[in-house]
C-alpha cells in the first residue's frame, strides 16, 4: 500500500467521523431552532387571542350590553370572539388552530377532545403550571401545541356559569340548562390551546442541515485535493527520485547525477544525507580500485 493510499484512507476515516459528528450535532441544533421558532409563533398567536379577549371584554361587551335583555349575543363573550377570529384565520392557514377547550363548556363546540382533556387535567393537577408545550403527530405531520390554563378568577363569571337559575334567560334559551354550569371560583375549567404546524420549519431545518453538510463536504474535498498535491510535490516525488537514484547506485551506476532539492525541510535534509552517503561510497570505491 503506497503512502498516498494510506494518507487518503486516514483522510477518509477523518471525513466519515467528522461528517457523522457534524450531522449528529447539527441535526439537533436545527431541530431545536425550528421548535423554538414554532413556539415563538405559537406564543404570538396566544398573545393575539388574549388581546382579542381583552378588547371584547372592555370595548365590545359594554356596547352590546343594552341588547342582552332581548337576546343573548355571544359576540360579548371573550372566548367566542377570540375563537371566531382565529376560525377566519384558518381559512387561509387551516393547520393553525386556536381553541378554548373546556371539560364542561356552555357551547358544546368547545368541549375538549381526549388529548385536550389530558392537558386540562394536567393543569388541574398542578396549579403552579402556567404553560405547557408538547409535540403531536397529525395526519399532516408534527404540530407544536402550546397551552395555558383557563382559571375562573372573576366572580362575575359565575353569574352565567354558577347555577342555571342565576344565568340570563336569553343565554338559557340559546344554550340550555345542561352545560357550562357548576363552575367554581379559582377552578381551572379549561385551557387555551394553540396548534402550529412544524412541517415547514422542520423542512427548512433539514434543508439548512443538508446545505451545511454539503458545504462541509466540499470544503473537506478541497482540502483533501490540496493536501494530495502538497503530498505529491513535497514528499512523494522527491522520495521516488531518491529511491530511483538509490537503486541505480546500488546497481553500480556511480555516474548517475546527484539529486538536488532546494530548501531546509526534512526532505532536503534527507537528500543532503543521501548525497553525502553516495559521495562517501564513491570515495570508498575509488580507494579500493587504487
Please tell me about this protein's structure.
This protein has 290 residues and is α+β, with helices and mostly antiparallel strands. The chain folds into two domains: 184 residues, Beta-Lactamase, CATH 3.30.450; 83 residues, HAMP domain in histidine kinase (Helicase, Ruva Protein, domain 3, Orthogonal Bundle), CATH 1.10.8.500. 60% of the residues lie in helices and 12% in strands. The protein is built from seven helices and four strands, in the order ααβαββααβαα. The protein has a four-stranded antiparallel sheet with strand order 1-4-3-2, sandwiched between helices. β2 and β3 form a beta hairpin. It is rod-shaped, with a radius of gyration of 39 Å. The model has no long low-confidence stretch (mean pLDDT 83).
Q: Look at the structure and give the mean pLDDT.
A: 83
Biggest β-sheet: strands ordered side by side in the sheet = 1-4-3-2
CATH topology of the largest domain: Beta-Lactamase
Q: How many H/I helices?
A: 7
Give the fraction of residues assigned to helices. Answer: 55-70%
* Contiguous runs where pLDDT drops below 50 for at least 5 residues: none
Output the CATH class name of the largest domain: Alpha Beta
Using the 3D structure, state the CATH architecture of the largest domain. Answer: 2-Layer Sandwich
Number of domains: 2
How is the main sheet built? 4 strands, antiparallel
Order of helices and strands: HHEHEEHHEHH
The general outline is rod-shaped
Number of distinct beta strands: 4
**Whole-Å distance between the termini?**
44 Å
The structural class is alpha+beta
Oligomer: single chain
What is Rg? 39 Å
Amino acid at each position: 500500500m503506497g503512502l498516498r493510499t494510506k494518507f487518503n484512507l486516514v483522510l477518509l476515516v477523518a471525513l466519515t467521523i467528522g461528517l457523522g459528528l457534524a450531522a449528529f450535532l447539527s441535526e439537533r441544533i436545527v431541530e431545536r431552532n425550528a421548535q423554538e421558532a414554532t413556539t415563538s409563533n405559537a406564543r404570538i398567536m396566544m398573545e393575539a387571542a388574549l388581546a382579542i379577549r381583552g378588547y371584547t371584554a372592555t370595548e365590545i361587551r359594554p356596547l352590546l350590553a343594552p341588547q342582552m335583555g332581548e337576546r343573548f349575543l355571544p359576540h360579548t363573550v371573550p372566548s367566542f370572539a377570540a375563537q371566531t377570529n382565529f376560525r377566519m384565520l384558518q381559512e387561509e392557514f387551516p393547520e393553525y388552530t386556536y381553541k378554548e377547550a373546556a371539560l364542561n363548556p356552555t357551547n358544546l363546540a368547545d368541549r375538549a377532545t381526549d388529548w385536550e382533556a389530558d392537558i386540562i387535567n394536567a393543569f388541574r393537577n398542578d396549579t403552579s403550571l402556567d404553560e405547557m408545550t408538547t409535540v403531536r403527530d397529525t395526519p399532516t405531520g408534527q404540530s407544536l401545541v402550546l397551552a395555558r390554563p383557563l382559571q375562573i378568577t372573576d366572580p362575575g363569571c359565575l353569574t352565567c356559569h354558577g347555577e342555571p337559575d342565576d344565568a340570563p334567560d336569553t343565554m338559557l334559551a340559546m344554550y340550555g340548562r345542561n352545560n357550562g354550569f357548576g363552575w367554581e371560583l379559582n377552578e381551572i375549567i379549561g385551557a387555551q390551546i394553540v396548534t402550529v404546524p412544524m412541517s415547514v420549519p422542520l423542512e427548512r431545518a433539514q434543508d439548512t442541515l443538508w446545505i451545511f453538510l454539503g458545504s462541509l463536504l466540499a470544503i473537506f474535498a478541497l482540502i483533501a485535493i490540496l493536501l494530495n498535491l502538497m503530498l505529491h510535490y513535497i514528499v512523494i516525488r522527491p522520495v521516488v527520485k531518491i529511491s530511483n537514484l538509490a537503486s541505480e547506485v546500488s546497481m553500480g551506476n556511480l555516474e548517475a547525477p546527484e539529486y538536488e532539492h532546494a530548501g531546509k525541510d526534512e526532505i532536503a535534509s534527507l537528500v543532503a544525507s543521501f548525497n553525502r552517503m553516495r559521495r562517501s561510497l564513491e570515495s570508498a570505491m575509488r580507494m579500493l580500485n587504487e
